[in-house]
């Protein structure tokens, strides 16, 4: 049997052999499945788990023995449709992110310095640089802050706002619209902070902090990636983006 089509839709050879073995055997335990598929038992459980997550295999337990069964072949079409749906969603997200990449490419060669930091400590190190360049009375901006941030990040930002107030620096922040209201209420409780929701449902994989001649890009996660860019041209461009979003935003109602 030519199984290339099954490979083309994203199944590995081990998954294909296991699925075909189950079609031939019907409901069965791992011993006969391993023999028919020629997949070692050490790998078989992993493959069966992946096939179950793809909706191509099910299992039942009888008298302490687990029996696996292939779903009917027409369900493969449903699997293809789900992959197509996820691909379209990914394309839509990329279409929204593409202008940012194109803007960065436009100013290629005008970047003076780029630094990349890994982890929470790296994020803090990058942000600490703002206090080396900003002075009392200055303002900086944060754009596209996501719903998700690890709890230790929230604790750091709360402590940092106290420090920012003492330094006499103000900040304008635009959060993604699905962010918990409690977070915006907290940020607005600090003097010199104006936190609002984005005026659109646009969401990006990263958020941006803009100050002086620096832009800090943060990809929020438990192990964040932070990119610090020094470039007057890029900063001026992103400031304009921020100002347009800010004009359309509304003050946060407590």
Describe the structure.
Strands 3-9-8-7-4-5-6 form a seven-stranded mixed beta sheet, with helices on both faces. 50% of the residues lie in helices and 21% in strands. It is elongated, with a radius of gyration of 26 Å. The protein has two domains: 4-73, Arc Repressor Mutant, subunit A (Orthogonal Bundle), CATH 1.10.10; 107-248, Endonuclease, Chain A (2-Layer Sandwich), CATH 3.30.870.10. The protein is an alpha+beta fold and 254 residues long. α2 packs across α4. It has helices at residues 4-8, 13-25, 30-37, 41-53, 75-106, 119-128, 130-133, 151-167, 181-188, 232-248; strands at 57-62, 65-70, 113-118, 139-145, 170-175, 193-197, 207-211, 214-219, 225-230. It is built from ten helices and nine strands. The chain starts with a helix and ends in a 6-residue tail after the last helix. β7 and β8 (214-219) form a beta hairpin.
